[in-house]
Amino acid sequence: MSRRTLYRLAPLACLLAVLACDGAVAPSGNATLMLFVNTAGTSVTTVVVDVSATDIPTSLVFNIPVVGGVASGTIEVPAGSHRTIAMRAYDADGVETHSGSTTVNIQPGTNPTITLVMQPLTGDLPLTVSLGSIIIAVTPSSLSLTAGQTGQLSAAITDWNGHAVTGTLGWATSDPGVATVDATGLVTAVHAGSTHVVATFQGAAGQATITVTP
Question: Model pTM?
Answer without folding.
Answer: 0.66
